[in-house]
User: Fold this.
Amino acid sequence: MISAQALTGIAIVALGMVLSPGPNMIYLVSRSVTQGRRAGLISLLGVATGFLCYLLAATVGIATLFATVPAVYTALKLAGAAYLGWLAWCTLRPGGTSVFAPQPLPPDPPRKLFTMGLVTNLLNPKIAILYVSVLPQFVDPDRGSIPVQSLELGLVQIAIAITVNGLIASTAGSIAGFLRDRPTWLRTQRVVMGLVLAGVAVRVAVA
Assistant:
């Protein structure tokens, strides 16, 4: 069983990452704003399938990584910390653009919406780093099976990501209008998320 500390840690990481602009959020918001809520939610199903693919691969791979290649694991951990730090900088730096000011997209049928959501997530480096470098930081070999812990942690992350992305896809149009008229709120959101990502980056690097 995962500890309460690990559960809280992965939840904070998952929330910080899902709220930071990235390929998944940009695609879901753009699709929802230009084609409607239903299109955004269909795209989200593809994103969710991508999360499950990563989780199944990580559940097996993390156990092997712990046992056989600790040097590679350390390198991946530092790479993950560096990437999270870069995301924090992109979020905090002056002149950043809002994910809620998306470019128009042409309408797509449901099958393509699902496929593009899946592909967008599978090719998202932020998600790859999350499962390869960040999630293992919350696994404790002394608490039992590493694959089981990885699965539990991954399911927590997926639940948070799908819930938040679902809310964003359902309300993207309203959020875009709200933030467009309130630049102070937009700056506050960027600062908070940037600081969360920076804190996670430091935690991963020194763990």
Remarks:
- The chain is about 80% helix and 0% strand.
- The radius of gyration is 17 Å.
